[in-house]
Automatic annotation (TrEMBL):
Name listed for the protein in its UniProt record: Single-stranded DNA-binding protein
InterPro entries named in the record: NA-bd_OB-fold (IPR012340), Primosome_PriB/ssb (IPR000424), ssDNA-bd (IPR011344)
CDD domains xref list: SSB_OBF
GO molecular function: DNA binding
Species the sequence originates in: Pontibacter ruber
Feature: compositional bias, Low complexity: 136-146
Length: 157
């Protein structure tokens, strides 16, 4: 039976990306992404619901995020859902759900300076580094296969 784990989001960064460099210089960036929808409730009043998503970028995508992404900026994210379970310090079972992105497009920035845009995606197999020109860059294979770890990464974000 075939299965698909694919997520497509367009939203705004809730804060600047937090970037860490792991052993071997592997970069990982994390940030919350807000997606909102508006609807009318049963009384005809307009309501807005915001959903928050934990986004994780690895390697080259993390470096691009560190350099160009800022709080409030709009981005297109494509990736997959990853849920991890772990035990906290009190022994309670905890779950963490993240979107591990393999493609990112900067849609613009809020505030001064106009807009910024660019397409970034992970490249498959053994290719690494950045390639191409213009607004497109590719990053090496993502940690989803290169950094399989079922335990929490002990990063404080």
């Amino acid at each position: 039976m075939a299965s698909v784990n694919k997520v497509i989001l367009i939203g705004n960064l809730g804060k600047d990306p937090e970037v860490r460099h792991l052993e071997g210089g592997v970069a990982v960036a994390r940030f919350p992404l807000a997606t909102s929808e508006t609807f009318k409730d049963k009384n005809g009043q307009r309501q807005e619901k915001t959903e928050w998503h934990n986004i994780v970028l690895w390697r080259g995508l993390a470096e691009v995020a560190e350099k160009y992404l800022r709080k409030g900026q709009s981005v297109f994210i494509e990736g997959k859902i990853r849920t991890s379970q772990y035990q906290d310090k009190e022994g309670n079972q905890r779950y963490s759900t993240e979107i591990v992105a393999d493609q990112m497009t900067m849609l613009g920035s809020k505030g001064e300076g106009g807009s910024t845009s660019g397409n970034y995606q992970e490249q498959s197999a053994s290719a690494g580094g950045y390639s191409g020109g213009g607004n497109t860059a590719t990053a090496g294979k993502g940690a989803s296969s290169a950094f399989q770890n079922d335990e929490p990464d002990d990063l404080p974000f």
